[in-house]
């Protein structure tokens, strides 16, 4: 796996240095070519180590080293930037795709997620395709504005227009971050995306953001009755179990889709005879917004429906997705999330409630209805503390189990 990753990195570097834009299939072919070249070179070196000269190889003649006159070894001093402006380092070609990789080399060490990297990479690829070049030094503020306007008029894969919120929080946020890093590291003289934004959309809410009881039952019943077609077994399992997990954990859809087999265990808790099944939501499994591990007890109805038995029956590590060739999960994770959104929307067509996120709103609503303390709800849902006082202490696993067990069973 390490060699495969190295080959992909070599392919990406070759593409980046030449200012090319390739699709995933071409990237895969290039990585294989890199691997084949390395293998041939390795065999050649082995033969040479045995004293065998490969066909067509000529031993180089010994030559005296070239000496550079001392006067030529002294580099001329660089002129200082005018008006105190930062100069752009080096004369190597600066590409847009290369800037993303440079940004990521530093951002990864600060805790930025792989999903953020993928989002920014896709945004930059889109900009390259729009501008029809990969030269970062040619990008102006007018180019960024033109790309923003283009994205606002674009249509997504589902046939719906790209939302202003997506353009602002994904496209422009990515450009500002990467160009900002480039300017700070003297790759570019300035950030061309500075000050460019999208007007805030005034939303009209005609309903609550959580699923009603009837809507919740409709989705959960459909999940129980779902039959596997041509979809992957993991996608089928996600449609069968993730809606139920969202209903009784308050977790984000991505946190559940990325679950691993080892993230479910049984523990003994006082006042809970027979033990309690506990889900561990951890950054080790993928992306967690707060970057903090949290444990969520499993509701008795999920146990009765057989979720622990399902998890035990899975032979691979991931319960609901298939990692890509490199072992990454960012792309597959987004794909399963999209399929779940489509599945939920088939049951509840009202655009006023989000097909996945509506479950988090419902969980919070139900917890409030049970007079659950805000700190308990935050601990279960993974919301950050809003005050210094909330950062002190914690919520025990037993207290969390008590809250979960108070949630009513769903009659389907």
From TrEMBL:
One of its GO terms (biological process) is DNA integration. InterPro entries: CB, DNA_brk_join_enz, Integrase-like_cat_sf, Integrase_catalytic, Integrase_recombinase_N, Tyrosine_recombinase_XerCD. Residues 94-183 form the Core-binding (CB) domain. The keyword DNA-binding applies. Residues 206-405 form the Tyr recombinase domain. Keywords: DNA integration, DNA recombination, DNA-binding. It comes from the Bacteria. Residues 61-77 have a biased composition (Low complexity). GO terms for molecular function: DNA binding. Residues 61-89 are annotated as: Disordered. Gene3D superfamilies: 1.10.150.130, Intergrase catalytic core (1.10.443.10). This is Integrase.
């Amino acid at each position: 796996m390490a060699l495969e990753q190295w080959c992909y990195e070599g392919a990406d570097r070759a593409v980046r240095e030449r200012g090319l834009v390739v699709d995933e299939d071409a990237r895969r072919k290039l990585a294989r070519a890199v691997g084949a070249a390395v293998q041939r070179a390795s065999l050649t070196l082995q033969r040479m180590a045995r004293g065998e000269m490969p066909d067509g190889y000529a031993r180089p003649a010994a030559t005296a080293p070239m000496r550079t006159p001392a006067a030529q070894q002294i580099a001329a001093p660089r002129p200082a930037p005018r008006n105190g402006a930062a100069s752009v380092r080096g004369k190597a070609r600066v590409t847009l795709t290369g800037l993303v990789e440079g940004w990521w080399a530093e951002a990864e060490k600060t805790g930025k997620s792989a999903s953020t990297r993928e989002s920014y990479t896709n945004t930059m690829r889109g900009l390259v395709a729009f501008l029809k070049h990969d030269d970062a030094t040619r990008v102006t503020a007018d180019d960024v504005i033109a790309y923003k306007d283009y994205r606002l008029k674009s249509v997504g894969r589902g046939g719906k227009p790209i939302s202003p919120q997506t353009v602002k929080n994904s496209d422009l946020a990515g450009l500002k971050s990467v160009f900002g890093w480039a300017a700070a590291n003297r790759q570019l003289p300035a950030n061309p995306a500075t000050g460019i934004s999208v007007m805030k959309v005034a939303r009209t809410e005609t309903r609550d953001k959580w699923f009603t009881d009837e809507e919740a039952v409709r989705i959960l019943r459909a999940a129980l009755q779902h039959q596997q077609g041509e979809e992957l077994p993991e996608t089928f399992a996600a449609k069968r179990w993730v809606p139920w997990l969202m209903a009784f954990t308050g977790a984000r859809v991505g946190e559940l889709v990325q679950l691993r087999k080892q993230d479910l265990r049984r523990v003994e808790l006082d006042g809970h005879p027979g033990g309690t099944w506990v889900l561990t939501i951890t950054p080790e499994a993928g992306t967690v917004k707060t970057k903090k591990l949290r444990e969520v007890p499993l509701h008795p109805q999920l146990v009765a429906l057989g979720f622990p038995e399902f998890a035990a029956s899975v032979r691979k590590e991931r319960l609901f997705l298939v990692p890509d060739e490199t072992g990454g999960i960012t792309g597959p994770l987004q794909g399963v999330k999209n399929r779940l959104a489509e599945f939920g929307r088939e049951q509840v067509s009202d655009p006023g409630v989000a097909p996945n996120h509506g479950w988090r709103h419902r969980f919070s609503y139900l917890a409030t209805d049970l007079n659950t303390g805000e700190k308990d709800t935050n601990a279960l849902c993974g919301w950050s503390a809003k005050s210094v006082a909330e950062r002190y202490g914690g919520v025990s696993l037993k207290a969390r189990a008590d809250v979960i067990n108070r949630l009513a069973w769903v009659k389907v």
